[in-house]
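Sequence only, no structure available. Ideas?
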Amino acid sequence: MSARFVVSKTDGGIPETIQENAEDTENVEIIVEDNKELDGNTNIRNDIFGGVNPEDECHAPLYNKQDEDTTTGTLPLYEGAKMGTLMGVYFPTIQNIFGVILFIRLSWIVGIAGAPEAFLIVLTCCCCTLLTSISMSAIATNGVVPAGGSYFMISRALGPEFGGAVGILFYLGTTFASSMYTLGAIEILLTYIAPGMSLFGDVRSSGGATSSVMLNNMRVYGTILLFLLAAVVFIGVKVVNRCASLFLACVLLSILATYIGFFSVHTRSDTRICMLGDRLLASKAYGHCSKNDTNIKQLFESTSFWNTTCIKDIAGAPGLSSGVFDDNVDSQYLDKGEVYVGQKADNDQEIQSDSKTSFFILLAIFFPSVTGIMAGSNRSGDLKDAQRSIPKGTIAAILTTSTVCILLCLNYFTSFYITLTLITDLTSVLFFAGTIEGALLRDKFGQSIGSVLLVAEIAWPSKWVILIGSLLSTIGAGMQSLTGAPRLLQAISRDNLIPFLNLFSYASKNGEPTRALFLTVAIAEIGILVANLDAVAPIITMFFLMCYGFVNLACVLQSLLQTPNWRPRFQFYHWFASLIGLCLCLTLMFVSSWYYALVALILAAGIYKYIEFQGAKKEWGDGIRGLALSAARYGLLRLEEGAVHTKNWRPQLLVLCKLNEDLKPKTDNLFAFVGQLKAGRGLTIAASVLKGDILERNEEVDVAKACLDQLMKNNKVQGFSKVIVSKEINSGLSFLIQNNGLGGLTANSVLMAWPENWKEKDTWKKFVYTLRVISKRHEALLVAKNLVTYPDNSERLEGTVDVWWVVHDGGMMILLIFLLSQHKVWRQCNLRIFTVAQMQDNSVQMAKDLKTFVYQLRIKADVEVIEMVDTDIEAYTYERTLVMEQRSNMLKQMRLTRKESRKEVQAIVETHHRTKKGHTSTPQPPDTPVPSIQVHTSSSTDTSQQGGGGEPNKEHPSQMNLQRMDNAVKLNKLIKEKSSEAQLVLLNLPPPAKDESGDYHYMEFVEVMTEGLKRVLLVKGSGHEVITIYS
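Reply:
I predicted one. Tokens follow.
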């Protein structure tokens, strides 16, 4: 099958991507045409999409376009040197891995840990990096990878918060790695090559790397070398690559010389060591290895072991055929100052441990030697094709550095150039253990053989091959770290995640991140001033392990979510392997140094919360969003499985807002009140209706929605906004009430403001219609009256919050006052509950039982029972009866036993709807606090009026309305007597009459009933129990 492409001719001829991938384009015909542009405004596109409105167009150029988010606030980006796989990834990676630890610490680790445990240390580190490189290859081949490398991959896979946090730590790890390599180079230079260069005395004196002489020299020479490396990096990446090629050639020769030396050392080595029993002596402690030596006699003749031990002069490197491997199997973990396990040194001429050692400490020290796997990916912005170069170069480098030069064969397999040989580090462990005496292996600085680097001592043909090669290797690795770290910081800065880092997004004319380089050098200087290689290495380990862990996590997440965009070209990965890599990284972090791991995690969490606080408004289609979507889908499906239990019930609010001509709510107080109610952590949907046609008011919908979103944000209300357009307001409100959520996550309560000008333009009709719709949907209703007087979030109220509990409909109002009391605005207010009883009720016992019920609810509130005749609460009679009939259904949903049902609040009310004579007392808990409880008989009642048991009034409607209004006046007078100074009054909202002709009188009734009260919240329950005494 052939393909036909028409492209434009540019100054550069055929586009670079077509040239680069020419080997893959079989049966492809490319036609190059002049005078046609493909920049989004071409003649070709106009011919095809000529009729498309530019505002509706969503087509974007597929190439030659940079992400706007990555260039904000920076100078125009410079297209830097475009490197291939070898120079861009393979050589930097292999040079970082063949670094300081391999040459100056691996033999010491073998001597301390023993061959099996050292083998396990190296194998664990290699498995961790290999699994991470496989995960990184999958992510890198799932799309274009511009500048930023590992940071870019993590941030686009896990989101800006995770990407920024891990990216900063990885940057710090890479920066401190340059310090580690610089210190290693100075240690090799002063200890093994030119000790005469010391400025502060003999560097071979006791104390080793921790002596003040060595530390001061490292600080001075380390600073000089760091500035020299920075100067080379400042010139440009091309110069770095030229130097890297030379350094790498020396490194490879050193590796080859080392392995030849393993097989030939027994034929040419004259390395001799002096053993006094199990004690290894420093070479300068004696002239001749014998008890007759004057220096040895002077040092040890007075010791207790002098007469019982013999002294012997033995070969330090007897060779592979000597059988020394068996002696190096057991571990010898030493404390500081010990010459062997459990024995402290008697003087400074014995080879002794300069620090405490353990399996996990050695693991933390060795791990940085395998952390160069991302040296190439950090240069992703300078690569021609990062998708190809990163996996090929990284995996090839890992396999190369994990092999020895015994069997070399090149194999082209699945587009990777792979060198298949035995594992370098692993075989080095075995060769060290089988070639060199254990005591000499534990001599970290070679003091027993004249302060010679041990690897250099066995190398062929001369030790200078290793000394020069190891020096150039560490210098080159430090240069690669100084090259990658500034580019990583620049990529983070360009994404504008951390505002104060935007300064470092600048690039020079030749494309170098100069400002980021200056900061990197300053931070690296801190590591130089620490001057202790073994102290810097664990810090680097933590930062790199965290980065590797998140790379594996990103691969696991993307693989399991199976998003349509997850289409990596690299197919040799599996989510379970990445999961193993993630677990391995976390395990290594805590077993190597749990306190460093905690510090790294705390730093990452702090950066994460800072980026989140700054509001990183980046939408990169990351896996965390995909995970949230999957979790939301799963949760919604689970919510559909059954009704919400009373213990899990919380107000899910639908907030109905009326907008003014500017498409803004008339007051912010409604949203402030919503925020004060959100102790329940429920759903909030702010909704509004615009009258008209959606085709004409579509833009206004977006403006209104933005206003609602801003108000919710200002008042710290988490939720959603919804604005619809309807030809009739009533129809729109009905639609919002019926369709305001998804599945089980829908609003169960409606909050709206009382229409203060309800007499104008039939506003009262819309309000009562909305009330009826809510009632039909069995949802709760909260109506805020006198909304302009409601407090904002900056106020702190004192006084009382009063509940007038006329209809006991499941504890809705008690739950509301509890939620309000959790907010700082209402926290200082005392809670009072006034419950209305009828004349025939047992009011005294009801007060005691309700007080016990409130105590069992764990709510601190005073309870007071008010007696009124039936006619005074006639407006609530129907609803009270209805609630009694619904009670059995409520309790059935709660799945309570008969005995438990009697303790619910509705049962208490019903029990006392009888004569006082037939009632028995309910026991009261012994430790119940005793608030003030009073029983009142309303002074406004008229004994000549009809009782609650009579027939409904059959008088003329106007006379009936007159009586209802009189009842409203009486109830209002009683409420004002008790709650005139209350900060908030919660009152049951009576239901409207079935006949619409009485709607106007209903509004007047509610208005009169609440007249003179400062703030009123009218509440209508949903008919469900919303609070219970049971845990």
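The two ends are 69 Å apart (CA to CA).
Hope that gets you unstuck.
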